[in-house]
Amino acid sequence: MPVKLSSVPPSLSAVESVSLSLSTLQPLIEPKQKDSTDGEKAVNTKQIQQVKKLRQGALAVFGSTFLTIFLSEMGDKTQVATLLMSAESQSPWLVFAGASSALVATSLLGCLLGRWLANRVSPQMLKTAAGVSLLFIAVQLLWEITHY
Predict the structure, then answer these.
(1) Are 15 and 70 within 8 A, CB to CB?
(2) In this structure, is the dihedral angle defined by the CA atoms of residues 130, 133, 135 and 137, taken in order, positive or negative?
(3) Which of 54, 58, 56, 30 is nearest to 44 (CA)?
(4) Which terminus of the chain is more exposed, N or C, with fewer CB under 10 A?
């Protein structure tokens, strides 16, 4: 079930951190207000509203992505493998660096492939293909369970 952008909890600490950093960078992001004619003030007000909408949309996308990936990765085989490698190596920071780099690399690959596909295939086709693929994997897993 996909996470809707509006379903991101407002108290999510990562979203609050990004919000704080964006408010710190606010002078760099928002256009400056000038003392000028009413026409220019209306344009500046419209620009400010567009920037605020863009910032809220970016926070929603970031928050929903963080929450979805964080919850889906909890307790999966990657986390268990990282836990075991950290326990065996006695170097938890090196394991963290390696695991983090691997997750960043696979996420980058997924984002680039997703952008490439989005430019070539309709969103409905992508949703259908993803659904069929996941259904195929589920059927394959059930087949393995019942026949071994």
Answers:
(1) no
(2) negative
(3) 30
(4) N
Q: Which has the closest alpha carbon to 113: 126, 128, 131, 125? A: 126
Residue 133 covered by a domain:
no
Which pTM does this prediction carry?
0.49
Question: Is 24 within a domain?
Answer: yes
Domain hosting 62: range is: 5-121
Residue % of the chain over a pLDDT of 70: 71
Q: How far is residue 67's CA from residue 65's CA, in Å, rounded to a whole number?
A: 6
Q: How many residues in the chain?
A: 148
Q: Which residue has the higher pLDDT, 22 or 78?
A: 78
Distance (Å) of CA 44 to CA 23, 34, 47, 111, 133: 18, 8, 5, 34, 47
Q: How many domains does the chain have?
A: 1
| d(C-alpha 85, C-alpha 94), whole Å | 10
Which pair of structure tokens corresponds to residue 31?
Answer: 């256009």
